[in-house]
Amino acid sequence: MSDLRELYQEMILDHGRAPRNLRAIEDADHTAEGFNPLCGDRVKLYLRVAGGVVVDAGFEGSGCAISTASASMLTEVVVGKRVEEVDELRRRFRGLVTGEVRDASRLEELGKLAVFSGVCAFPNRIKCASLVWHALESALHSEAGAAPAVSTE
Amino acid sequence: MNTRSPGTTTRSDSIERSSPEALDVQSLRREFPILAQSIQGRPLVYLDNGATTQKPQVVIDSLVEYYTTLNANIHRGVHSLSQRATEAYEGARTKVAGLLGASAAEIVFVRGTTEAINLVAWSFVRPLLAAGDEIVVTAMEHHSNIVPWQLLCEETGAVLRPVPFDDRGELDLDAYVRLLGPRTKFVSIVHVSNALGTVNPVEEMVALARARGVATLVDGAQAAAHQRVDVALIDCDFYAVSGHKMYGPTGIGALYGKQDRLAGMRPYQGGGEMIASVSFEKTTYNRVPHLFEAGTPNIAGAIGFGTAVDWIERVGIERIAAHEHDLLAYATDRVAGLPGIRLIGTAARKAGILSFTVEGAHPHDVGTILDREGVAVRAGHHCAQPVMDRFGIPATVRASFAAYNTRQEVDALVDALEKVREIFG
Asked: Is the pTM of this model over 0.90?
């Protein structure tokens, strides 16, 4: 049970139940879709970037608690950050959920995203946590309007 | 035609249930070495039999035995080993035929149900089709009984027409009759739905198609190890099964085809084994069923499949059916009694499959928590996305039963679902 509690931390359950920024952004200048064909999780991410800084983020989609919470928390943490900072955060998040980042000081750098540290004990759930982050990469670094749907398969 | 109406208990059913010779499940479980292991420190509770069943020791042994004492290519060597391997392979064909009520010449070995359906699509149905023709399936098909037909439709301009079903997961037979029209060239329907557990009235549906001169295929992947299947009684033109869902190895299955149907079909794949003679001027083909088994087949798999069929017959398919029926009724009662459960698929006639959702918890999360309790279920769309769409859900949790499952395992499932409520409640 303990590793389940580690996976389903209160903050994850909270964001899973009541996701923040669950909305399309009409004038988004960066969007991308993510799809996990294994479990049917879908996410569409909307970003607005001004002067190299993410100024608004929202998402639509349906999925499990892990993927929903991951998308919800992503939209909270990226706002106000420069694109390069977001990229760095994305790399750190990946290290976290794959289990490469373990030590406390580096966990601290991730702020509240550290609640996803339990995911690495569940290899078949890593894709749930990382789906929206793949979409983030696609949204920020593909040609505007040409971002293909990313798939975790 | 079988006129059994949904929900009625036939005499044989009631005899089975009151039979003193109920399954000795505990001794039967000992035949499955994999069931003795622990998962996450708990005894494995394997309730994902709709995906694949576990294998009894005799089946595992038959594979080892084949490679240890019998391995040779078949139908060509003059040496003793080849002769014995051929006899074992053809013996397996006879066993599979026996289980389905067919003759050996009507059984084609394939990789599984998916390949069987593709074979019929390309070798039998494709030459019948012109633009505007129609193929009828049900709205509860597995993707493997949708996509092969869509491929044909793309190529020919034919149209796929699904028979709808109601909120319980029962087909609308009036709609089916209306769909059978002058352009209907083929009917391909699932016997037991893998997502809902519905046992469809295939005898009646085949008869309705036959009365209009339309040939039929029945997808028996979820049926053949769970109830007596008699292809002569169903009277379908084709019936498809997978060995690995019947206590046999993966990579082997069978297509039953009526002899006159198989005889009129063009080859599926070309190669060795399926020919009588080859020259650059003219190649003549082997007779059926070998015509449809190009290349060296899965000899060990077929022999293992034959052993699995022996095992099913020894245990008794009617007894397995009665046992699973009892388990399903018990599981339905217990799971439906939990708060926040929505059963998906509540047809009057069901077999071995309990699909449901848990309020406030995504099936994928439920699957993870159940796994931590040692309970293996399927969580997902079950390769039947149109079924999920029909109910407006992305996925379900599915428990599916086999001969070796017990009421205690159902209790373990229910206890694990309580854990889901502790976390998500």
From this structure: yes
